[in-house]
Amino acid sequence: MASKPSIEVDPIKSERSGTVREVGSQAIWSLSSCKPGFGVDQLRDDRDDTYWQSDGQLPHLVNVQFQRKTTVSDIYIYTDYKLDESYTPSRISIRVGSHFNDLQEIEVVMLTEPTGWVHIPIKDIRDKPIRVFMIQIAVTSNHQNGRDTHMRQIKIYSPIEKQGMAIDNFLTFSTVEFQQFATIR
């Protein structure tokens, strides 16, 4: 069980660094429930002044299904306790698998009055990103025993694998035949 401190987190910084890319747009998103006008479109619109609002009993579920097996390294969730109070999640379960029937919980995140982005690294037991067809983000409890949930944004990131080989691999030639090609004239 992980507890996330409230440090300034910015998923866009990671994206700009070129090490990850947002893959949520490649998925099909569904919700366990939502109030009219407060659904997936608001959850994915890149705005922090809109939100998904659940409508019903806990747990509240966000299902993210990829059409092909996708490597996932990070999930970022934007919440705002100052605005949402009892609607703010306090316990989130991350579940992964191939489909609804084989989901396994891989992370439980406890939140204490979060405002801003919450970063949830997604790793297997060897500390590598996970390859999945489906992610389920389950809100299992809210602050102040609130019934419905507000989540303002969710972003899902995949690592960018560098193509090619490093030039350093070719700088130490061991034969005379290869050393003649070590410099360009």
Describe the 3D structure.
This protein has 185 residues and is mainly beta. It is built from four helices and twelve strands, in the order E-H-E-E-H-E-E-E-H-E-E-E-E-E-E-H. It has helices at residues 11-16, 40-43, 81-84, 176-179; strands spanning 2-3, 20-22, 27-31, 52-53, 60-72, 74-80, 89-97, 104-110, 115-121, 130-142, 150-151, 153-159. The strands form three sheets. A six-stranded mixed sheet has the order 1-8-7-10-5-3, with no helix packed on it. The protein has a four-stranded antiparallel sheet with strand order 2-12-6-9. Strands 4-11 form a two-stranded antiparallel sheet. A hairpin with a 6-residue loop joins strand 7 and strand 8. The longest helix has 6 residues, at 11-16. The termini are far apart. One of its GO terms (cellular component) is anaphase-promoting complex. InterPro entries: APC10/Doc1, APC_su10/DOC_dom, Galactose-bd-like_sf. It holds the Pfam family ANAPC10.
